Amino acid sequence: MYYLKRYLAFQIDVVLSGFLFAPLLVLLTFTNPEFVFIMKSQIFITLTYAIIIISYFIIMDLIAGRSIGKILFKLKIVSINKEELPKYRILLRDLTRIIDLIFLIPMFFMLLNKNKQSLPDKIMKTLVIGDLEVSSSK
Question: In this structure, what are the phi and psi dihedrals at residue 74, rounded to the nearest 5 degrees?
Fold first, then answer.
């Protein structure tokens, strides 16, 4: 159930960040007609979307301490000791998410380790756990 909750939370966040991505492309297309030619580049679109997804996570973590997907599924980012993290550590973790977005393989990394950590979680020594796990560990 944990993997499903985490997967669905991430998918919700990707969809929500897509709502930011689409208007940006429309705005750029209308303000700069040459942009249509740039948009044909798959690399440009992928990099732009990756930047928007990471920006979404950074903004949500600054505002709410976690993404909307994590809020809906009652998930929280904590240290490996299950202690609250300062915002700067969560933001650094967000920046390491580029690894997930570029390679996708690290997403499967969490299936192969006992702490259910993605590669960015392993790098930053963090866990994603349910809200109840935080309160019960204190």
Answer: 55, 50
